[in-house]
Amino acid sequence: MKFNLINQNDWKRKPYFDYYLAQETTFSITSEIDITPLYFHLKSHKYKFYPALLYMLTKVVNNHDEYRTCFNEDGELGYWSSMVASYTIFNEKSKTFASIWTEHSECFRTFHQKVIEDIRAYEGKEELFPKKPIPPNSFPVSMIPWVSFTGFNLNIMNHGNYLLPIFTAGKFIRKESRIFLPVSLQMHHAVCDGYHASQYISELQKLADEYVKWI
To answer: Which residues are catalytic?
Structure first.
C-alpha cells in the first residue's frame, strides 16, 4: 500500500480539479448491470453473490488512478497504489448495519473465503465499524437488497473534500429471462468526469460477462 503524491504543477487535470473542488461538485449515475450468466454460475458453484460484487468493484477501482485519487490524512493530494472495499453487512436483530473491510486478493476463491469469514466474524455486532483499524486505502460499498432503484445519490457535507467513488447496489431486477443489478456510482467531479463514470460501468459489465476468466 503506497500513497503516490500528485505534483499539481504539471498535472493536466489541475484546471478541472481546482474548479470542481471549489464548486464542491459531485454527481451520481445508476446503471443496470446484466448479471444473468454470472449469477447462475456462482449459484451452481455455491458461491455467494456479494463477495463476487465486491471483487469486481475493487478490481475496476484498482485498474485506474482516477478512482483511487484522494487527500491523505495530511491533506496531501495523491492516489493509492491499490484499495480495498469497506462494505456494509446487515444486522437482522437491530435493523442497523456494520461496515467492515476485507483485504483484496486477485484470486477470487481466496477473496470469497476471506469475505465469508469476515461476515461471520462481525455479523450481529452492534457497532458501525467493528473491524479495526480501518485502512486508509478503503472505499465505501453499500447494499440495499430490499428495493430496486433507477437512481440513487448521497449528500455528503464535508466541504466537498471526499474524492473517492461511493458504490450502492440494490435488489435484483428480473426482466423476462435476464437478471440485472442496479448499481449507483457517486463520484467527485474534481477527479472524475462522465467519461470516467461510463468507463467504470463498462468495465464492471465486462467483468460480469467474462466471469470465466476470474472465477
So the answer is: 189
